[in-house]
């Protein structure tokens, strides 16, 4: 095991390979407060990458209802239970990572899901069950809450899948940190499926080899954001590149939201993989739950989000979500507008931070017609 | 990313295993010895099709019982004990082809992969590509490759090459055929290849009196795959 630095844990940790950070890291931010689980992202991904035989139950992108929705079934609670209760107080994580918790002689603590765990994506997640007679109501001992959790591969800095593959079939690209699985090298041993705590490597029973999210690299190489990002009707996603934690660029919207403002937080950082998709936590959910899922910064992040309207630059960065299909390498707020720029500093987005309100006359003189509100 | 301590550990463990296992014949420079670990080949002067495990000609070939042990765990993910303890081996050579017949007990039939938790039964026969017993039987090494004939219960035979742990790669020329059949609670599998071949990669079988050989069996129900398998830990001798 090599010693590597995991900025999300604030400490060094053991990993089977030496640290080799990419030139820039593919990353994505999700605003969970805006997600409505319409699954447009899921369908966009599916029709683009996984419409074939053997891929029926393969969702490189999925959206699940928390706290009781999962894909595959129980993925996070299963590995959390195996890892056991850990101290999550931060700012330095003193608990065990999944690498620390590996059984003797193994690389990482993991488990292989049952086939049935993949069989019912989203079934029953948002449904009430049983007969609901007139006047029925639910009383629970705690406040009622839920939220939607969209997920793709985290393109981790320290990928579990990569570390577990006995054939080095999985690699992390130095140019953008996207984690890819070479299907011509894979022999279907499923060590990666077992090792990935997010269960974002899928086994294809038809081809007998594994597959995973490719970060839409053909789009990303051409300067465009991923399919799941550009098709998001709620504009909840921002995809781009992050710099290493010691080379923060405040004008990069992802660096700004994740590393500077710490508004967007990693998913289960305690696993120790340094995942690179980040979540603006839902502001209405009990912090104790969120702390386990997104780490010790949740209280500050939700407080900051509630006050985002006071911070022009923060508001500008949030307005870039869904503003352009291209990747914003940098951004600038000027007056009431936010501007996004590509890698060559060319303007690719210009969005008003406050949507202008236009009130039209009831009668349209030019067309000699009344404007009626059809809703 | 660069391989670090894992490789070192594996290599030193491997060296340990070679010494501890007393695998004299596997040491570099050693020559194959005609010991008790010999599979005798039935040599025929006429053409016979022995592709089927039920072909009548197999009744004439000697049966050698080969004990199998858990394979050396080439990487840390391999945990557990393989369920197969032995395989009955027969070999037959015609002027054109070499046939190897394997029969082993396996009460569970794993012929299809329906999902991530299912693995298929499989068998393999391994030769040193250079024909020398000085090649390590543990998947070879970069200078001394092994040539593997593999059969899987989903019907896929493959010719493979390996130059150490984690390097198994399908051969450029796919020249191996295999047929497996069920009999009561066992598998019967015949793997075959023509003696003359068009590639320099694979093991040469023409004009030999004997060749080192090793065997491996996987039980899918026991989630055996990869290096989680029952094997011969040292070369046997296939004598023509």
> What class, by secondary structure content of chain A?
alpha+beta
Number of helices of chain A: 10
* Helix and strand sequence of chain B: HEEEEEEEEEEEEEE
Number of helices of chain B: 1
Radius of gyration of chain B: 17 Å
Report helical residue fraction of chain B.
Answer: under 10%
Beta strands of chain B, count: 14
User: Any idea what the shape of chain B is?
Assistant: globular
Describe this entry's structure for a reader.
The complex is a heterodimer of chains A (375) and B (240). With 375 residues, chain A is of the alpha+beta class. In chain A, 19% of the residues lie in helices and 19% in strands. The N and C termini of chain A lie far apart (63 Å). The model of chain A has no long low-confidence stretch (mean pLDDT 95). By secondary structure, chain B is mainly beta. Chains A and B meet through helix 4 of A and loops of B.
Sum up the structure in keywords.
heterodimer; A: 375 residues; alpha+beta; four-stranded mixed β-sheet; three-stranded antiparallel β-sheet; B: mainly beta; Immunoglobulin-like; 14-stranded mixed β-sheet; 14 strands; disordered N terminus
How is this structure best summarized?
The complex is a heterodimer of chains A (375) and B (240). Chain A is of the alpha+beta class and 375 residues long.
């Amino acid at each position: 095991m090599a010693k590597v630095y995991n900025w999300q844990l604030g400490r060094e940790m053991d990993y089977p390979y030496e640290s080799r950070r990419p030139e820039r890291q593919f990353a994505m931010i999700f605003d969970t407060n805006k997600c409505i689980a319409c699954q447009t992202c899921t369908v966009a991904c599916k029709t683009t990458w996984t419409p074939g035989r053997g891929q029926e139950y393969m969702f490189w992108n999925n959206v699940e209802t928390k706290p009781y929705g999962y894909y595959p079934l129980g993925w996070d609670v299963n590995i959390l239970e195996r890892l056991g209760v850990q101290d999550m107080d931060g700012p330095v994580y003193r608990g065990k990572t999944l690498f620390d918790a590996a059984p003797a002689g193994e690389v990482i603590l993991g488990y292989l899901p049952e086939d049935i765990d993949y069989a019912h994506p989203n079934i029953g997640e948002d449904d009430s069950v049983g007969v609901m007679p007139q006047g029925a109501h639910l009383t629970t001992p705690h406040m009622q809450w839920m939220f939607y959790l969209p997920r793709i591969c985290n393109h981790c800095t320290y990928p579990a899948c990569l570390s577990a593959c006995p054939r080095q079939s999985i690699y992390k690209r130095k140019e953008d940190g996207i984690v890819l699985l070479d299907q011509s090298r894979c022999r279907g041993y499923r060590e990666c499926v077992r090792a990935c705590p997010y269960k974002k490597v899928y086994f294809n029973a038809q081809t007998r080899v594994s597959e995973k999210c490719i970060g839409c690299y053909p789009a990303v190489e051409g300067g465009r954001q991923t399919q799941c990002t550009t098709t998001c009707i709620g504009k909840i996603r921002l995809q781009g590149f992050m710099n290493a934690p010691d080379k923060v660029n405040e004008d990069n919207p992802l660096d700004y939201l994740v590393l500077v403002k710490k508004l967007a937080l990693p998913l289960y950082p305690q696993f120790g993989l340094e995942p690179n998709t980040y979540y603006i936590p839902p502001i209405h959910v009990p912090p104790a739950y969120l702390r386990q899922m997104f780490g010790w910064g949740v209280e500050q992040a939700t407080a900051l989000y509630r006050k985002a309207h006071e911070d022009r630059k923060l508001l500008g960065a949030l307005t870039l979500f869904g503003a352009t299909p291209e990747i914003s390498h940098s951004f600038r707020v000027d007056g009431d507008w936010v501007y996004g720029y590509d890698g060559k500093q060319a303007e690719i987005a210009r969005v008003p931070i406050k949507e202008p309100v236009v009130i039209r006359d009831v009668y349209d003189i030019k067309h000699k017609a009344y404007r009626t509100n059809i809703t | 990313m660069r391989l670090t301590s894992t490789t070192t550990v594996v290599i030193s463990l491997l060296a340990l295993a070679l010494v501890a296992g007393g695998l004299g014949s596997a040491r570099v420079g050693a020559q194959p010895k005609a010991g008790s670990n010999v599979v005798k080949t039935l040599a025929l002067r006429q053409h016979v099709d022995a592709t089927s495990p039920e072909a009548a000609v197999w009744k004439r070939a000697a049966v050698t019982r080969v004990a199998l042990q858990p394979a050396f765990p080439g990487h840390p993910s391999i945990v557990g004990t393989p369920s197969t303890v032995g395989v009955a081996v027969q070999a037959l050579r015609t002027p054109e082809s070499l046939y190897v017949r394997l029969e082993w007990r396996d009460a569970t039939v794993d012929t299809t992969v329906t999902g991530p938790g299912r693995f298929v039964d499989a068998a393999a026969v391994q030769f040193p590509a250079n024909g020398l017993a000085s090649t390590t039987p543990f998947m070879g090494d970069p200078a001394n490759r092994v040539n593997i004939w593999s059969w899987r219960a989903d019907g896929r035979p493959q010719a493979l090459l390996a130059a150490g742990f984690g390097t198994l790669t399908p051969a450029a020329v796919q020249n191996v055929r295999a047929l497996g059949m069920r009999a009561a609670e066992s598998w019967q599998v015949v793997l075959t290849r023509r003696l003359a071949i068009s590639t320099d990669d694979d093991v040469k079988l023409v004009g030999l009196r004997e060749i080192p050989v090793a065997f491996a069996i996987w039980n899918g129900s026991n989630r055996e795959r990869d290096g989680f398998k029952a094997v011969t830990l040292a070369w046997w001798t296939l004598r023509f």
